[in-house]
Peptide/nickel transport system ATP-binding protein (Phorcysia thermohydrogeniphila), 323 residues
Amino acid sequence: MKNTPTEILRLEGVSKTFPLKKDFFGRVKKLLKAVNNVSLFIKQGETLGVIGESGCGKSTLGKIILDLEKPDRGTVYYKGRDISKLKGKDYREYRRNVQAVFQNPQSSLNPRMKIWEIVSEGLRINFKLSKKELKERALSLLNEVGLPSSYADSYPHQLSGGQKQRVAIARALALSPELIVADEPTSALDVSVQAQIVNLFMDIQEKKGISYFFISHSLPVVEAVSDRVLVMYKGYVVEEGKTEEVFKETAHPYTRLLIESVPELFSKKERKAVTTLEAEDEELEKGCPFYPRCSVRKRECLSYDMESFKLTETHKVSCILYL
Ligand SMILES: Nc1ncnc2c1ncn2[C@@H]1O[C@H](COP(=O)(O)OP(=O)(O)OP(=O)(O)O)[C@@H](O)[C@H]1O
Ligand SMILES: [Mg+2]
């Protein structure tokens, strides 16, 4: 019998809004829907990639998974249990098992701590270990991420960007997590270093069987690391599927635009320069949020409720064309 991998995490109907505009009296006049009715799951040992242009809600979704942001609606389940109801030991277990690696190792590493102290901090907080034991564990973690142990007594500023990101990965690995939320972990690095860090993520996964929620602006990176991919637009998941389905059997007009206009679409400065479609972002009260930019739109799209359609068992799209 084949072993079905355990589900580590599941989101059901998760939404998150932020107050956008306030009036003179500080009352909220407009809400920004950063994440809209998102459901997803992540199984043991797999990578779920997330793509979508700046501001579409990728990081907010990552923070909800990490319980750094609370959803306004919907539920996050860790191994089948609602995380908002976890207490004490159970909540700590979830937090230990879901770790993060962020984009900028510069700001995420404490400049006053030695590398070995940074890497072993989680162990020091969670377990009663001696300094000698902590340092030993740190050395072995540095080894796992391909850093010589001679760096253990260095400070972050003495390391290159890529080396700092290795430290951030070692720190995330210290508590043997089941899932790592990697939010643009290679975006701040030189192109030549990006590939090394991507390879490191993949090697670690192969050795440890951990899962990744992998956010990246780089489509080639997401295509290389992911088993499945979510495509987000204005807080909605507009398409999801196995990596080959999303990249080779692309269904949503937005995903197509995304794949065709790489990389211009991705730098914040150049976003406005995308002229293939009228990119002016009117906010619609209802209907498909991609309507203003869509080249194949129909009137009915204005009353479409973003219900998703199954193209295959694993490939889903939220577009009225597939109705
Ligand atoms: N704490 C907050 N308060 C108010 N608005 C927020 C907050 N966090 C995020 N937002 C807004 O929510 C939307 C989604 O932001 P988010 O950071 O999740 O996007 P993203 O897809 O990660 O973008 P990027 O690719 O630039 O990192 C954006 O419009 C952002 O300005
Ligand atoms: Mg982000």
